[in-house]
Amino acid sequence: AVGSCRRRRLAPLNEDNGRFLLLAALIAAYLSAGATVFSALESPSEAAAQLRWNRTLHNFSRIFNISLPELRAFLRSYEAAMAAGIRVDALRPRWDFPGAFYFVGTVVSTIGFGMTTPATVAGKMFLIVYGLFGCAGTILFFNLFLERIISLLAFIMKACYERQLRRSGLLPPNFRRGPAVSGVGSLVGWKPSVYHVMLILGIFAIALSCCASAMYTAVEGWNYVDSLYYCFVTFSTIGFGDLVSNQNAVYQHQGLYRFGNFMFILMGVCCIYSLFNVISIVIKQILNWVLKKFECRCCPKCHKSSTRLSRRNAITPGARLRRHNVAMDADGQYDSDTEGRRLSGEMISMRELTASSKVSLAILQKQLSETANGYPRNVCINTRQNGFSAGVGSLAIMNNRLAETSDSR
């Protein structure tokens, strides 16, 4: 049975490939379901609009005695003018410096509204080179923003957690975090929950969208639902272009509105990008859970042995780094019962920690932190893995910063 499990693990369809194929199947099903829903919702409206337009076109041709081919030729010219950015009402210039800056911002952020496009061959060729480096640099900026916002949230959540422990009496009243603990890079022993981070980012994204929608409703004259729709389409970089802000020729407090529009779009895109990456980690955990449900189904003996070897605590079984060697070097003397529990791989009970009188304050703080947070993750490096084994980009950032992202979860 164990040999069959090993052969399955060595097969080309390993866990990563299985996760990829499962995600591809789910995405295909998700796309099919979305296409079915949108087709059912929008197709009747489209057919009704087409009938109304044909009726209006024939009535206009009959009333003004204009042939339908001539009328359609005129309408084609009008559509070409609209594509070039020409409107009946006066609009702001598309290619002055503020308009061009707005355009390049939508290019590098991949929003791509489409209301402004280069018309010359030189402009189109320059856009290819400009977008290549601009989009790459902006994605790097989004990843760096993601890393820092996760570090900030982790620092705040750890401070709140330590305050909660201090209130419950699990930390000494005179406990102060030193320089090695107060830094952002000290989040190895404790990592925030991915679900808590997702909740905070979701609340912040909703609040930001509501504030931006209120501004667009007041300035652009849209209704609030359309403003919320525009915020999501823009912040998620979908950028349909059916609604575009800051396009009128004149606004009240125009400079202030342009600045507010730029800041809302920048913060919204960064926040939604971070939220999407956190949600992707949750989706990955769901895929892992589904794959584990199918793991070793044909091998009940192996399944029973893996269940029997699991630890008897709330932490899911997995690779954990035992830090008893470091603790022994720092103090050197322990109770035999406490040492036996550490070497067995179980968590140290808080009652034994508080009752022990032979440990120093530094060791007490270390064990309290390990007890509250769980043992640190296994950081052993497999020399056979390449540099991409831990993931790249935003996925690697989330794996390093959050708690529920290891293979053992």
Automatic annotation (TrEMBL):
GO molecular function: metal ion binding; outward rectifier potassium channel activity; potassium ion leak channel activity
Annotated compartments: Cell membrane
Organism: Vidua chalybeata (Village indigobird)
Topology within the bilayer: Multi-pass membrane protein
Family to which the UniProt record says this protein belongs: Belongs to the two pore domain potassium channel (TC 1.A.1.8) family.
Keywords of this entry: Cell membrane, Ion channel, Ion transport, Membrane, Metal-binding, Potassium, Potassium channel, Potassium transport, Transmembrane, Transmembrane helix, Transport, Voltage-gated channel
Gene Ontology CC, one term: monoatomic ion channel complex
Ranges annotated as spanning the membrane: 20-41, 97-115, 127-146, 194-216, 228-250, 262-283
Catalytic activity annotation: K(+)(in) = K(+)(out)
Domain Potassium channel: start-end pairs: 92-149, 205-284
GO BP: any one term: stabilization of membrane potential
Name of the molecule in the record: KCNKC protein
